[in-house]
Automatic annotation (TrEMBL):
5-aminolevulinate 2 binds at S285, Y324. GO terms for molecular function: porphobilinogen synthase activity; zinc ion binding. It catalyses: 2 5-aminolevulinate = porphobilinogen + 2 H2O + H(+). This is Delta-aminolevulinic acid dehydratase. The active site is at K205 (schiff-base intermediate with substrate), K258 (schiff-base intermediate with substrate). The lineage of its organism: Eukaryota, Fungi, Fungi incertae sedis, Mucoromycota, Mortierellomycotina. GO terms for biological process: heme biosynthetic process. One of its GO terms (cellular component) is cytosol. Zn(2+) binds at C128, C130, C138.
Length: 338
């Protein structure tokens, strides 16, 4: 439809449509609700400690024994979903990341625990090899140091099954190997649990400079080289579109664009390429830190900076956001409803 259909001397007057705060709410394409927030949680194998993460102010690695007490007030405040990241520190890392699906790995223990403690909370798990491999890469390597894609995909499917059996509701592979969505979906079907474990693909995941604080949090910086041969080049819109289409074709249930703010055009592309799919965006660690430090420096209030970034994600087409600001936003949603 062309708009305005019939221009007249009044259609140029806009103020009336947003002079009142409720009017302004009506002008939004979507309002943020608690269902739209997924909180990334770092779980470590130091069972009784909370280790503050210097580069992610306000975030910590949590020992299993502190996890329920940490999450309880957030669940009471409306927290609906989390994504778990394992940060084992006591393990021996090896080239194939054997510790990733060890029955005692922090994510598997946390899944059992959280499923019992919070039966309604959606539990997603990040699947990747980088926190567990001696070389720190997201896949298995060949002798020449390049990625062994087939071996990686096989390993990722095995790890995914271990998490699925431990009770996770959603598998979220962040490795960016070719064909992992199909391999994991096939494994879920084979196991007979494809109806109750969904698959969220980190589809358009870029080789970003904004992951720094996260790699610090997870001790997952590659020992040598970088991730530019599997994560997407930030300059490329076309590869992101192809990766999204590819992952839909391989059976992804939910799509993701990551990072968020520098890639809002990709988020809009994803929305248009896949109008019938739930779409998420990951506001990554560097974006979190950037907003945090800006607020500290008086650029804006934290709430203003965070909520404006959320507005951008929703406007571009996201259905939900993975963000370390989840606790604060839940609080602000509650304040707003009073
Ligand atoms: C691991 C992974 C990373 C992030 C999520 N999963 C780091 C990376 O790929 O290097 C980044 C999240 C963040 O920065 O908050 N594959
Ligand atoms: Zn990784």
């Amino acid at each position: 439809m062309e708009f305005p259909v019939v221009p007249n001397k009044h259609t140029s007057l806009l103020h009336a449509g947003y002079h009142h705060p409720i009017h302004r709410k009506w002008q939004a394409n979507a309002q943020i609700t608690s269902e739209m927030l997924m909180y990334p949680i770092f779980v470590t194998d130091n069972d009784d400690v909370e280790e503050k993460i210097d580069t992610l102010p306000g975030q910590s690695r949590w020992g299993i024994n502190l996890l329920v007490d940490f999450l309880k007030p957030l669940v009471d405040n409306g927290l609906k979903s989390v994504i778990l990241f394992g940060v084992p520190v006591k393990i021996k890392k090896d080239p194939v990341g054997s510790a990733a699906d060890d029955p005692n790995t922090p994510t598997i223990r946390a899944l059992h625990l959280l499923k019992k403690a919070f039966p309604k909370l959606l539990l997603a798990v990040d699947v990747c090899l980088c926190p567990y491999t001696s070389h720190g890469h997201c896949g298995v390597l060949r002798d020449d140091g390049t990625i062994d894609n087939r071996g990686s995909v096989r390993r990722l499917a095995d790890i995914s099954m271990a998490y699925a059996r431990a009770g996770c509701d959603m598998i979220a592979p962040s490795d960016m190997m070719d064909g992992r969505i199909k391999a994991i979906k096939d494994a879920l079907v084979e196991e007979g649990i494809a109806h109750k474990v969904s698959l969220m693909s980190y589809s358009a995941k870029f080789a970003s400079g904004f992951y720094g604080p996260f790699r610090d949090a997870c001790h997952s910086t590659p020992g040598s080289g970088d991730r530019k041969c599997y994560q997407l080049p930030p300059q490329s819109r076309g590869l992101a579109r192809r990766a999204l289409v590819r992952d839909i074709g391989e059976g992804a249930d939910v799509l993701m664009v990551k990072p968020g703010t520098p890639y809002l055009d990709i988020l809009r592309d994803a929305r248009e390429l896949a109008p019938d799919y739930p779409l998420s965006v990951y506001q990554v660690s560097g974006e979190y830190a950037m907003i945090w430090h800006s607020a500290q420096a008086g650029v804006f209030s934290l709430r203003t900076g965070v909520m404006e970034s959320m507005d951008g994600f929703l406007r571009a087409g996201a259905n939900f956001v993975l963000t370390y600001y989840t606790p604060q936003i839940l609080e602000w949603i509650k304040e707003d409803s009073n």
